[in-house]
Specification:
35% of the residues lie in helices and 12% in strands. With 362 residues, the chain is an alpha/beta fold. Helix 4 (120-133) links the parallel strand 5 (107-113) and strand 6 (153-159). The chain is globular and about 70 Å long. The strands form 2 sheets. It has a 6-stranded mixed β-sheet with strand order 1-4-5-6-8-7, sandwiched between helices. It has a two-stranded antiparallel sheet with strand order 2-3. It has a domain at 33-276.
């Protein structure tokens, strides 16, 4: 396997960038590389808007999407799709994380979802169907054979949860994933789902609308540190699950052991390298991290075996870290208290620790 020495930047980050990087340590981000399962880092990693990123997204798609009609992804371009497709009065539109069109015309709708929500699968199926429908412009319907121009649409989700271990979320509607997982759990060692319209009687398939899900927690555990026999899939999983554990020093050590990452993986990791980010990107990443911590405070992580979703974590160190950051960002102390479930007295003490003026309207 051809390798590439990892990019070593020739310039140091400016003072503002360095200060923001240091500020991320309050949330456990000690490494040099961003966590790609956050919204900002995921888009930064895969967005094909930058020419150099095209090889990265081509590698991602060809690694995780089974070959469709033997037509490997050759080229990509970014094409956002709004849902719903047409503006409606007082109706908020949503833009999918990423919509890529290959040179052959195949559509890929890509989304990162770190935390589970009820009916998430139904939502992404709707997004995929919307992309499928919006291929045909109104003017194209003048052709009586318009449907011949339809190209396949594949919705891809990188998930931060294990569907086999989901124990339910409190809501007013049924949790449809639970029944699917109970009746047909993923086999041991399998971390991907691939939905295709299939006839129950003949097994015939219609492949024009597909959905692929990559459940990161189910991926093999021994993917960090990397090994000499790593496949490209192993490298991608290692980056998605353990990017913050990499460092330039560690990469140099791996290379001395003959463990050299493929060039496209080196490029992908470079896209996550904080010193090359601008201050706006780092600030957005910091906001993502705060939101993630707030979610963790509200709901128990599914990483602990047998622990139900929705269990309150309570006032722990993570809550205190988030509370301090929210105070610094100017959130009223009462709201910080409610958000983190820390008492107002504790929040006031934390505010004092970071030098806030409690007499000021924050």
């Amino acid at each position: 396997m051809t390798g590439a020495t990892f990019y070593n930047p020739s310039t140091e980050p400016n003072d503002e960038t360095q200060e923001l990087i240091e500020g991320l340590k309050a949330f456990g981000q000690e490494g040099e590389y961003a966590d790609p399962t956050t919204d900002t880092a995921f888009k930064h990693l895969l967005s094909p808007a930058i020419e150099e990123n095209k090889e990265i997204i081509k590698s991602f798609l060809n690694t995780f999407v089974p070959a469709f009609a033997h037509d490997a992804v050759r080229d990509v371009r970014e094409a956002p799709v709004a849902v719903p497709p047409l503006p409606k009065e007082k109706l908020k539109q949503t833009f999918m994380d990423m919509h890529v069109i290959s040179q052959s015309g195949c559509h890929y709708v890509i989304e990162m979802q770190a935390h589970r929500h009820i009916n998430f699968d139904e939502r992404v199926l709707y997004y995929g169907a919307s992309a499928f429908v919006q291929q045909i412009a109104e003017k194209d319907f003048k052709d009586p054979m318009w449907y011949r121009n339809l190209k396949p649409t594949i919705a891809i989700q990188v998930l931060g949860y294990d569907s086999n271990r989901c124990l339910g979320l409190k809501d007013d509607i049924p949790d449809t994933l639970l029944e699917r997982a109970r009746q047909n759990p993923l086999p041991e060692g399998q971390f991907m789902k691939h939905y295709i319209m299939t006839d129950k009687h003949s097994g015939q398939e219609i492949k024009h609308l597909q959905m692929i899900q990559i459940e990161l927690p189910r991926a093999r555990q021994n993917i960090f540190p990397p090994q000499k026999d790593f496949s490209l899939t192993d490298w991608w999983l290692s980056i998605f699950k353990f990017a913050p554990l990499y460092s330039q020093e560690a990469i140099a050590s791996f290379e001395k052991q003959g463990i050299v990452m493929p060039p496209v993986i080196a490029q992908a990791l470079e896209r996550l390298y904080f010193p090359k980010w601008n201050p706006r990107e780092i600030h957005e990443y910091k906001t993502d991290t705060i939101e993630r911590e707030k979610y963790v405070i509200e709901f128990a992580s599914e990483r602990a075996e047998g622990k139900a979703e929705g269990e309150q974590i309570g006032s722990d160190n993570r809550a205190r870290k988030v509370a301090k950051e929210l105070v610094v960002d100017g959130m009223p102390l009462e709201k910080v208290s409610k958000m983190t479930e820390l008492s107002l007295e504790v929040v006031q003490e934390l505010a004092a620790e970071v030098g806030m003026n409690l007499g000021k309207d924050t």
